[in-house]
Design goal:
With 154 residues, this protein is mainly alpha-helical. It contains five helices and three strands. Helices cover 51% and strands 6% of the residues. Helix 2 crosses helix 3. It starts with 19 loop residues before the first helix and ends in a 12-residue tail after the last strand.
């Protein structure tokens, strides 16, 4: 029999990306709460049912541009303001995701170098000190001279 290969449920980069409708709902709900207004009041002013507005705020429904315009008006916002806020949040999340991906990549590279150098994974190239003769001790391995230690920076 062959090996059983398990795959995680979240595969690829698409699993962690937020959807437009989720961020839109966050923006609309946050604005409504800042204004200290209840859902039924805003829904009535926008001409939609409270249930539908609730589904928009929870990111379960993606409203048409007409409905979105009505909800924005009911909150005293221009459609541009809503779209701009959503875009800013999506951009900020993308920046965080990129930084996290770069951090994971650096950790993989460091772990690879640590593995090649015989260093315990989890402690990438941890310089532990010098011995009595003044030679450098790197994770328990004594190096002949300080010139044997290199720093690789990208």
């Amino acid at each position: 029999m062959g090996k059983v290969v398990e795959f995680s449920r979240a595969t690829g980069p698409r699993a962690s990306k937020p959807l437009w409708r989720h961020v839109l709902g966050e923006v609309l709900r946050e604005e409504r709460l800042v204004q200290e207004r209840i859902l039924t009041e805003v829904a009535a002013a926008a001409g939609v049912s409270p249930q539908y507005l609730s589904e928009i705020e929870r990111g379960r429904k993606e409203p048409s541009s007409e409905i979105l315009g009505s909800v924005a008006d009911a909150l005293g916002l221009e459609l541009f303001d809503v779209v701009h806020r959503v875009g800013e949040r999506l951009g900020a999340r993308l920046d965080v995701e990129r930084r996290e991906a770069e951090r994971r990549e650096r950790l993989l590279v460091e772990a690879s170098f640590a593995f090649r150098a015989g260093v315990v994974p989890g402690h990438p190239l941890d310089l532990t000190g010098t011995d009595a003769a003044g030679t450098i001790v790197l994770a328990g391995a004594t190096l002949a001279a300080p010139a044997d230690v290199f720093l690789l920076a990208a």
